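Archive maintenance. Older records in this collection stored only the sequence; we are now back-filling the structure field for every entry so that each record is complete. The fields below show one back-filled record exactly as it appears after the update. Entries are processed alphabetically, and ABC transporter ATP-binding protein is next in the queue.

ARCHIVE ENTRY
Title: ABC transporter ATP-binding protein
Organism field: Arthrobacter bussei
Length field: 265
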Amino acid sequence: MTTSTNTPVNPPGSAGAPDIVDLPSGSAVAARGVSKSYGRGETAVHALRDVSLDFERGRFTAIMGPSGSGKSTLMHCLAGLDSVDAGRLWIGGTDITDLPDADLTRLRRDHVGFVFQAFNLVPTLTAEQNITLPVALAGGRVDSPWLQQIASTLGLTDRLSHRPHELSGGQQQRVAVARALLTRPDVIFGDEPTGNLDSATGAEVLSLLRRSSREMGQSIIMVTHDPMAASYADRVVLMKDGALVGELQQSTPEAILGALAKLGA
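Back-filled structure field:
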């Protein structure tokens, strides 16, 4: 696990916070000394404890751990959906730790994709309109050749005119993946993206995510509790009690399950 901390890290906004931090040039997302707590005093829950790690560009990473390990909190902080108490975060080389809300919203819109357990499609729009919706809301122009390439890669070419109720669960999640890919984001975050799918359809979506990483160079960070889902990733980061405790490279479901068992998951 990459946990380089050659440059001291100070809490955001603190005196002496460094202007330059030693970040690998190949990082799509990075964290240094990140801590996050909920509540105060004896009832405080320490969701993240001094977490430092890097996510390389073009790699598919899964984050796993027992319930309450901090994996979802870490993803929310990495994506700029939640603030941190200490440490710093980067997306695509941009320090997002202290960005004003408006700037952070623009950065997420232009540089981050999301694929959630719920498909989050607009029922009155076609598949194509759902895919292009973020670009339309931003007043941008759709890259039509790229859209067609994504649709072809994800097997959606003949489904673009269909509305969500005319699509299977797997097809709806493919639309969500296509929507995330359209802006060529620095990173796609997946929060249990196959949680609402049967095993066969889930495997199909996970294969598509892996292809997106390997064939399109897309960086993907996925939180999951499922060892089978995590086995599709290039790398599995393990957490317990808000801290990083290890990682596996291109591992099998059995090896991942064994590692989780040692953590009490």
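Update note: Residues 235 and 249 are 5 Å apart (CA to CA). The chain is about 30% helix and 25% strand.
Entry marked complete.
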